[in-house]
Amino acid sequence: MSLVVDAAGWAHHLVTLAVAAGFAGWHWWFVVAHPQWCERRTWTMVGYFAGVLAFAAVLVTRSDAFQVFVPACYVLAFVALPGWWTYIGVLAVNLPVLLVTGMDLGSVLINIGVVTPLAALFGTMVRAMEREAIRRRETNSELVAMAAENTRLQELLVAKAKDAGVAHERARLAREIHDTVAQGLTGIVTQLEAIGEVSAQARGRLDTARNLARTSLDEVRRSIDALRPGPLLQARLCDAVREAVSAWTDQYEVSARFSVTGEPVPAHSEVEVTLLRATQETLSNVGRHAEARRVDVTLSYMEDLIVLDVRDDGIGFNAASAGGFGLTALRQRVAALAGTVEVESSPAAGTAVSVTVPSIRAGT
């Protein structure tokens, strides 16, 4: 526009173009090349805006066409200056115009009394809408993250419930087989062995029946064993717990010590399964939440009880609010055996979980 409307010579136009190019480079360096400066370097951007006004003043004095650019300086004030500096910048935008129009009272009143307040009002409205858009975007991001976390927790709960249901059903089947078929076959063997003198032919048939009953009883016992958890198939309870502690140590890289007190005795499959699951659930909670540096696991065999103690030196928590899904399921499982689960903890004082179940011997 300056090249078209101004009648000045080419020397004048070349100087004007050089100033405009310098203005473009100034703006590119401070805003385009370093957009992060607008939020982090207040004084740098104050210097930038002072340069903007200086370039604008020079251009306006060289050509009236550059007065068209002056309203853009209001926008740049809101882009480059933070907080109350913005409104100081908006007020300072009047300086290039006043250089051209002079200190005419009417021009001063129009620019400072009308144009500047309107520019400040529109800029404030845009900035408020921008903040609201950012707030809504952050809120939406939080909601999406919460939905994803809820989905993950729901999947975890479903998986835990499924595993618990499968384990419970396997244990129920084992109990049913043990209490019905196995006990019945044991009774048959006992009755057959109690028969006194009979004929040779009858004795042969009794021996055959007794052998069949014993073979069937062995098969039933193998079926019951097959329903037990994997670590308990070929190992005693204390060995299975020791393996669980060792695997947990490898996974979380936290020092864990396992010890056994008393004389280990074979326990009923449901008792062993419950104590093994209690070990796994408690150690899992320690690994995910406790931030512990050391864990002690003790399995104590007493005359009528088996006690599992898991202690850590982690951050602890308010024991009164302990009610997670895993702990609730553990309490229910232990309660089904007439046992108890006790949790002792407080913030910054570690946690101790004690699981006590009756010592029901295997085969009973």
From TrEMBL:
Its needed co-factors are:
[4Fe-4S] cluster
Give the chief site where it resides.
cytoplasm
Its EC number(s):
2.7.13.3
Can you say where in the cell this protein is located?
Cytoplasm
Q: Which GO terms describe its molecular function?
A: kinase activity
Show the CDD domains listed in the entry.
HATPase_UhpB-NarQ-NarX-like
Checking Pfam families in the record gives: HATPase_c, HisKA_3
Q: Which InterPro entries match?
A: HATPase_C_sf, HATPase_dom, Sensor_HK_TwoCompSys, Sig_transdc_His_kin-like_C, Sig_transdc_His_kin_sub3_dim/P, Sig_transdc_His_kinase_ChrS
The segment(s) forming the Histidine kinase/HSP90-like ATPase domain are 270-361
Catalytic activity reads: ATP + protein L-histidine = ADP + protein N-phospho-L-histidine
> So which domain of life are we looking at?
Bacteria
Any idea which UniProt keywords this protein has?
4Fe-4S, Cytoplasm, Iron, Iron-sulfur, Kinase, Membrane, Metal-binding, Transferase, Transmembrane, Transmembrane helix, Two-component regulatory system
Sequence intervals crossing the membrane: 7-30, 42-61, 68-88, 108-128
- Briefly state the protein's biological role: Member of the two-component regulatory system NreB/NreC involved in the control of dissimilatory nitrate/nitrite reduction in response to oxygen. NreB functions as a direct oxygen sensor histidine kinase which is autophosphorylated, in the absence of oxygen, probably at the conserved histidine residue, and transfers its phosphate group probably to a conserved aspartate residue of NreC. NreB/NreC activates the expression of the nitrate (narGHJI) and nitrite (nir) reductase operons, as well as the putative nitrate transporter gene narT.
- PANTHER family, from UniProt? NITRATE/NITRITE SENSOR PROTEIN NARX-RELATED, SENSORY TRANSDUCTION HISTIDINE KINASE
By what name is this protein known? Oxygen sensor histidine kinase NreB
